[in-house]
Amino acid sequence: MSDESVRDKALLLAAAGRRVSLSQQKASAAIAVTSRIKTLRDNLEALRTVLQAARRLNERGAQISLQDIDKGLDNFRKRAGAGVPSKRTIDNAASIVGDLATRIQKDLQGEWQSWCKHRMAELKTDRIAMLPSGEAMAAEASLADLEKLRRGEPRAAAIQQFAFAHRELRTQLDAAPEPDPEVLKLLDRLRVGTTLDTLTLADIQLLFDRKLAGTIEVRRRAV
Question: What is the distance between the alpha carbons of residues 55 and 160, in angstroms, rounded to a whole number?
Fold first, then answer.
């Protein structure tokens, strides 16, 4: 094999090596950009979710600031308008969007707790004892659902569900009779536990008059 042939093969190998190297660099760069785009996309999804919830709560009287929500994307559009955005441009946009989502989420959580506290205070829960058996059980279940939603994440669907359940329960309790101290005292006795011989005919008649007899269960005690 001549020196020229060896040199030609070496040049061909070197050229092939450069192509492989460039190809690997492009692949690495593409992976890096893809990873950055995914981070930006994830942050945008988080911002979309929290914005949806914040707007839903603001519609019901909360005051969560939604200023500068387009800031990160506006800068991204300006810098990416000429072509493929740089890594720095993508990173800056992801950072701004992520910070916005975190700030709004924090404000949303605080407003959610305050809003729920005020809504729960509107419920005349002492009237549950004045409801007939089935209605009282339904009211207690609704109250438990509200407490569960209150402790959960303030998502748009949860806010909507809370508002609907609260409205239904408040309507029911507003229409219920005012608590009767005499009835409440008797119900407290029954809740603690008492025997039939301690109940007077007046006590039993009171339960029937208030349509609460169906809420009382009588059992014989084992002897």
Answer: 11
CB atoms within 10 A of CB 89: 17
Predicted local distance difference test score (pLDDT) of residue 1: 44
pTM of the model: 0.70
Q: Is the dihedral of CA 203, 205, 211, 213 positive or negative?
A: positive
**d(C-alpha 108, C-alpha 153), whole Å:** 10
pLDDT tens digits for 43-95?
A: 888 888 999 999 999 999 999 988 877 765 666 666 555 556 677 877 888 88
The pLDDT tens digits for 9-33 are 445 555 555 554 545 555 455 555 6
Instruction: State which H helix or E strand residue 6 sits in.
Output: helix 3-58
Measured CA to CA in angstroms, residue 80 lies from 77, 88, 90 at distances of: 5, 11, 9
Judge contact between 46 and 101, C-beta under 8 A. Answer: yes
Answer for the pair 143, 97: CB distance below 8 angstroms, yes or no.
no
Cα 123 to Cα 166: distance, rounded to the nearest angstrom: 8
CA diameter of the chain: 125
**pLDDT for the residue 194:** 80
Residue 36 CB coordination number (10 Å): 19
Q: Going along 67-208, which residue ranges are E strands?
A: none
